[in-house]
Known about the structure:
Shape: globular
Distance between the termini: 22 Å
CATH class: Mainly Alpha
Oligomer: single chain
Number of helices: 22
CATH superfamily: Sodium:dicarboxylate symporter
Strand content: under 5%
Structural class: mainly alpha
Mean pLDDT: 75
Low-confidence stretches: 1-16, 147-154, 444-450
Helix content: over 70%
CATH architecture: Orthogonal Bundle
Amino acid sequence: MTTGPLRYLDSIQPQPLKNLSSYLSALVEGRLWLKVVIGLVLGLLVGFALGPTAGLVEVDTGALVGNWLAFPGMLFLAAVQMIVIPLVFASIILGLASSENVDQLRQMGLTVVSFFVVTTAAAASVGLWVAALMKPGQGFTSDLLQQADVSDAPPPLSPPGLEEIPETLIRLLPGNPLGAMVEGQMLQVVIFAIIVGIALVTLTPAQSKPLLELLTSLQQVCMTVVRWAMVLAPFAVFGLMARLTSQIGVDALVGMAFYVVTVITGLIALLILYLVLVWFIAGQSPMSFLRATRELMLLAFSTSSSAAVMPLSIKTAEERLGVRSSIAQFVIPLGATINMNGTALYQGVAASFLAQVYGIEISISGLALIVAMAVGASIGSPGTPGVGIVILAMVLNSVGIPAEGVALLLGVDRILDMSRTAINVAGDLVASKLMSHWMGDDETPEEATG
Length: 450
């Protein structure tokens, strides 16, 4: 028998997500991803014309035009970052409130978090392995390293020491939830949302109804902002690529080509690992999974934001992968916050690449520390564009690699950010599919849409 707020939630929850999911699906059918790729290519060409390589315009003029061209991109990033916290907060609570009892929540929560931690560690390890195999930093010219603008690099961050760990763990519980939201402390927001969601499950429908209505309205408002932001996606990619290319020049991009190939090779290896897991554990063939998720991954690639495509991720899990609604609406918003497998792999490759460039030998313990830092730093990071480059500064600092080297990666980060976001979203879908199988709630896609 259904208990708690589930009976009421079933009648009010699906509409906002499904409405926006239909809109996002229409964008995919309208080839948004192709428009973004065209914007990417045009941005490279315009950036080349404005940059120092072509010499067609003065440096100051090129920088001025590049900054104005990047304005739609900055607006897109600001819009996504603005709504990611309320979107994740509302989605996690509504997903938890869809569960029937606390025991089910405990089992599902422990299983999915353990899965995220293990797969994130595996992804970082794959990144280190691919980088050690392909050695993208060997033979790298020092000229490009000297040309890197270290003023754009994120400041180095230090991981907490052993004596600071207890206090750090206590700070994860937000003393002021509103303050955590204002400051963008994603992990604190997630923990607060989980506590509120669990508390809602224990209430009667009459007691939980007002808050559920408020959260549903909040989610719908966030979805509307996402819909507006999607209109800017092609212009955003064009402007950001034009500005980056005009600042660093085409020579730097060409010099980084093998590094880009190395990261993409690692991401493909991680995707193959996902497909194997779904095939052997959940019994879904790789081709069937790719057919069901290809539009979503194309849109994730286009937007560079797992948070922005969250509604379509939930719809794809429910209707095309046969995942139960309560599982999809809990696992996917949580995954958009703490499941950064593509980002962890990227950090492993980037750390090895910069170590090779600087001529630093990383010991076995250093490699293990990179994996541990990649896992820890990924948890609680928002699923918004560009966050991986900030996390990387902490990972580099933990093993003695100069964080200033991040400036060398900024020129190609936009392309890699798009690629790793697609893999992050695929990881969220794999987790929801496997959770549905382990919880005994698997349906066929036909049953899910029927």
